[in-house]
């Protein structure tokens, strides 16, 4: 790999003197995508289809990117926005958004941003109905929100699968969650808000103290709603 580190953290990663867990434990900020490529081999990406145009037989045809048009003195100006998630399918996931003038560059930029936003996903055997001991679901019931969309994720026993829409399934697959129950509230036609609400829930889980499982729900950091 011809990655040349540009930051101090990058150099530490390149020489192998820091691990991924240490980066998150110490709250170090990842500022170059090469760090993530190096530390998480086999990272996959998925595009969240945030665009839509009226379909032939009614309804909405989902498209990978959202195009907005703006009138300008010299004619129409197009802007293309994309949302990409990256993950290793085993406990690490990131989400990125970007805007550009064309599809390809919007997706590339969003992928890069997603890598910089990589974070661990808490998983466990979660449900009291399941005793398999594998990390296949979320450890606790948790709620996330974005805009008017609110989603509640609940631990599910093995075999339940992912009972949610296609875009949300992409998120769970890349996160390495195999079984989950979910409920959503509010305006849910926006796929972008929906995906971000799931990430909001993941972030809240990361801020919880999960050692005492029964009281975990009450221990969410109260400062959580200051972002966005
Ligand atoms: Zn289990």
Helices, strands, pairings?
Layout: H1 8-14, H2 20-25, H3 33-39, E1 44-48, E2 51-54, E3 60-63, E4 66-72, E5 75-87, E6 92-100, H4 103-116, E7 119-120, E8 142-146, E9 149-155, H5 166-175, E10 180-185, H6 191-206
Antiparallel strand pairs: 1-5, 2-3, 4-5, 5-6, 6-7, 8-9, 9-10
3D structure, described in words:
The chain has 228 residues and is an alpha+beta fold. The chain has a domain at 142-226: Ribosomal Protein S5, domain 2. It is built from 6 helices and 10 strands. Strand 8 and strand 9 form a beta hairpin. It is flat and about 60 Å long. It starts with 7 loop residues before the first helix and ends in a 22-residue tail after the last helix. Mean pLDDT is 88; it is low at 212-228. Zinc ion is lined by residues 125, 130, 132, 134, 136, 157-158.
Short description:
By secondary structure, this protein is an alpha+beta fold.
End-to-end gap: 36 Å
Order of helices and strands: HHHEEEEEEHEEEHEH
Largest sheet: 5 strands, antiparallel
Average predicted confidence as pLDDT: 88
Q: How many β strands by DSSP?
A: 10
Q: What is the CATH fold-level name of the domain at 142-226?
A: Ribosomal Protein S5, domain 2
* Strand proportion: 25-35%
User: How large is the radius of gyration?
Assistant: 19 Å
Backbone structural class: alpha+beta
CATH architectural designation of the domain at 142-226: 2-Layer Sandwich
CATH C-level class of the domain at 142-226 = Alpha Beta
Number of helices: 6
Bound compounds, please?
zinc ion
Helicity range: 25-40%
Low-confidence spans: 212-228
Basic shape? flat
């Amino acid at each position: 790999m011809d990655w040349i580190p540009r930051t101090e953290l990058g150099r530490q990663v390149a020489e192998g003197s820091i691990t991924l867990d240490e980066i998150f434990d110490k709250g170090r900020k990842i500022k170059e995508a090469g760090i993530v490529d190096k530390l998480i081999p086999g990272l996959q990406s998925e595009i969240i289809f945030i665009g839509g145009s009226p379909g032939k037989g009614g309804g909405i045809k989902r498209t990978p990117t959202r195009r907005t048009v703006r009138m300008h003195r010299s004619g129409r100006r197009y802007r293309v926005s994309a949302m990409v998630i990256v993950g290793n399918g085993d406990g690490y996931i990131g989400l990125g958004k970007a805007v550009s003038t064309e599809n390809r560059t919007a997706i590339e930029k969003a992928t890069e941003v997603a890598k910089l936003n990589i974070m661990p996903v808490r998983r466990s055997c979660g449900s009291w109905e399941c005793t398999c001991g594998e990390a296949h679901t979320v450890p606790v019931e948790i709620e996330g929100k974005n805009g008017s969309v609110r989603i509640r994720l609940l631990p599910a026993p093995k075999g339940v699968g992912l009972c949610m829409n296609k875009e949300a399934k992409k998120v769970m697959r890349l996160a390495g969650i195999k079984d989950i129950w979910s409920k959503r509230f509010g305006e849910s036609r926006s796929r972008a808000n929906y995906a971000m609400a799931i990430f909001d829930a993941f972030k809240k889980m990361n801020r919880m103290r999960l050692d005492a499982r029964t009281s975990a729900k009450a221990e969410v950091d109260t400062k959580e709603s200051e972002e966005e």
